[in-house]
Amino acid sequence: FQQPADCPDFSSRLQEQQVCLERVTSSDLGLSGTIQVRNVAFEKQVSVRYTFNQWESLHEVCARWHQSIPAKNGQDQVDVFTFFLPVPPFLLQLSTLVQFAARYQVNGQEYWDNNRGKNYTLTCQTHPLKMPRECEESWIHFI
Asked: Boundaries of each CBM21 domain copy (predicted)?
């Protein structure tokens, strides 16, 4: 999927849903990302619910507050939260799907960004590491 923050309707989706995934990146350890929420109240909880097996079982991680973005153009102040989803190494070799959605709880209400009902979905893949040509004949890789 395209990074949500790069979509032209990102601001309108945030206003409509109250919560919107901003960006996600992957590494060998898992997925990291940012979520924007409308600052409706001081007390709030942001989390990411995810699964590796088509929602037969699920996991949830709390996101942490990162920064506030001041109100502009008549839109409310926005808070940015960060999250990390650990991906077990054994799953990386199975081309497993990781599906997730962002959850925002505030003022007794619950709001979701689940990619318009499709969930955000990534496929775990491994990529062979290629040694730089200048290192191929170096002794350093034997140490």
From this structure: 11-123
CA 43 to chain centre: 21
Residue 76, pLDDT score: 77
Cβ contacts of 114 within 8 Å, gap of 6 or more:
101, 102, 120
| Domain range annotation of the chain | 4-135
Where are the strands (E) in the chain, listed by range? 19-26, 30-38, 44-51, 59-62, 64-69, 78-86, 97-106, 109-113, 120-123
83 burial level (CB within 10 Å; 0-12, 13-18, 19+)? buried
Q: What is the pTM of this model?
A: 0.82
59-62 and 44-51 strand pairing: antiparallel
- Using CA atoms, how far apart are residues 109 and 96, in angstroms rounded to an integer? 32
pLDDT tens for 79-137 read 999 999 988 776 666 667 899 999 999 999 999 999 999 999 988 765 555 656 665 55
